[in-house]
């Protein structure tokens, strides 16, 4: 009787032991046999928090990573996942991000792939409402932080010790890493040596690496975006597509005067309260330091990024008393930070009052995506033109 009770425990122990003994290379080689097309628009954890999926994508030389946040998850017939495909762009979109993925999360992603980003074209969507009084919160950080990516970041030789110091100093500001022994031991030394020790011990690394590889093999069935539209935009010129997007937005925002899609507006009314967004658009936000860290990481890895800066819904933010001057100060500071660092920028914050650029309070969509898609394809084709971006 006791043997029968112990048998499942014994069997699970044997399987776990075999799992530990299997070389991680066996699993990663299996993950590379599948088509990464299946996960390019999946927005799953193996993409956001993983290493193997992103590495496989970057080594393929056929993809255009698009880093963003919740706007990437929104169903929209003008979403770059669909339009870049319809337009036969030379590179395929590969979406990295989810709601709450802000500058620091993107910087860790980039740093973990430093050895694969030399000369790579990427797009990074910046949402000015990230720049809040508190910056990235502990809860949002905990939900999106990847220990495996951090481990890779600190191990990579191509990142300077000075940049790693800045990551370490930023990471220990979060509750879950405040007492991290590795980060604190490194920061306590005068000459920071990132070749001594690791962020994770060998056992933790073994588990995380294999778990990540398994997710890259079996975790691709979820597809966040579907394109049920019967529209085909391949032969439509950009000005024609913008006109169509304008008509589409008008048709889908008949219940309000803010250009918001009807479904969102109905949800907003059900809440029966005014949005309090006074904590947003702080031009002294910690988020600016995180943006600078992202910029400097992209510089060190020698990537070729296009920063896309999107507006809020100006009409709505006026309505909820987040005044235009407050928003404008943040818009200008973001733009100045990017341009002074010689980044390629497509800034459309001057379109915050243009109808159907924003589909709700803050999310880009409809005509806004059409503007952005055109510039992403120009970037892919090496035809970036700073004259199309907002000028201050």
TrEMBL record:
Key word Coiled coil present: no
Family matches, as InterPro entries: DltD (IPR006998), LTA_DltD (IPR023896), SGNH_hydro_sf (IPR036514)
Entry-linked Pfam families: DltD (PF04914)
Recorded metabolic or biological pathway in which this protein acts: Cell wall biogenesis; lipoteichoic acid biosynthesis
Keywords: Cell membrane, Membrane
Domain of life: Bacteria
PANTHER family noted in UniProt: PROTEIN DLTD
Family: Belongs to the DltD family.
Protein name: Protein DltD
Species of provenance: Mammaliicoccus fleurettii
Gene from which this protein is expressed: dltD
């Amino acid at each position: 009787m006791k043997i029968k009770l112990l048998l499942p425990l014994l069997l699970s122990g044997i399987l776990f032991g075999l799992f530990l003994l299997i070389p991680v290379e066996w699993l990663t080689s299996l993950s590379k046999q599948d088509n990464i097309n299946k996960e390019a628009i999946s927005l799953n954890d193996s993409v956001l928090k993983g290493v193997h999926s992103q590495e496989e994508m970057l080594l393929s030389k056929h993809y255009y990573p698009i880093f963003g946040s919740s706007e990437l998850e929104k169903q929209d017939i003008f979403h770059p996942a669909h339009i870049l495909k319809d337009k036969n762009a030379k590179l395929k979109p590969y979406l990295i991000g989810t709601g709450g993925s802000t500058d620091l999360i993107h910087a860790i992603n980039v740093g973990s792939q430093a050895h694969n980003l030399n000369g790579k074209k990427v797009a990074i969507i910046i949402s000015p409402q990230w720049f809040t009084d508190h910056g990235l919160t502990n809860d949002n950080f905990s939900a999106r932080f990847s220990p495996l990516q951090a481990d890779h970041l600190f191990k990579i030789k191509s990142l300077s010790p000075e940049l790693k110091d800045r990551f370490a100093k930023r990471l220990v500001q979060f509750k879950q890493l405040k007492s991290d022994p590795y980060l604190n031991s490194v920061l306590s030394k005068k000459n920071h040596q990132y070749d001594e020790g690791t962020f994770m011990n060998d056992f933790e690394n073994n588990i995380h690496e294999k778990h990540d590889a398994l997710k890259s093999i079996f975790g691709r069935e979820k597809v966040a975006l579907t394109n049920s539209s019967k529209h085909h935009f391949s032969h439509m010129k950009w000005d024609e597509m913008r006109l169509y997007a304008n008509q589409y937005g008008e048709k889908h925002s008949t219940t309000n005067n803010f250009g918001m899609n009807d479904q969102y507006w109905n949800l907003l009314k059900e809440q029966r309260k005014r949005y309090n967004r006074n904590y947003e658009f702080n031009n002294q936000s910690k988020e600016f330091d995180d943006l600078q860290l992202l910029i400097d990481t992209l510089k060190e890895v020698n990537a070729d990024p296009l920063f896309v800066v999107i507006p809020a819904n100006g009409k709505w933010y006026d309505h909820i008393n987040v005044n235009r001057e407050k928003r404008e100060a943040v818009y200008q500071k973001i733009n100045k930070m990017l341009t002074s660092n010689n980044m390629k920028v497509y800034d459309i914050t001057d379109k915050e009052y243009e109808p159907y650029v924003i589909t709700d309070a803050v999310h880009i969509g409809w005509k806004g995506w059409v503007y952005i898609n055109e510039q992403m394809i120009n970037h892919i084709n090496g035809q970036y033109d700073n004259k199309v971006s907002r000028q201050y």
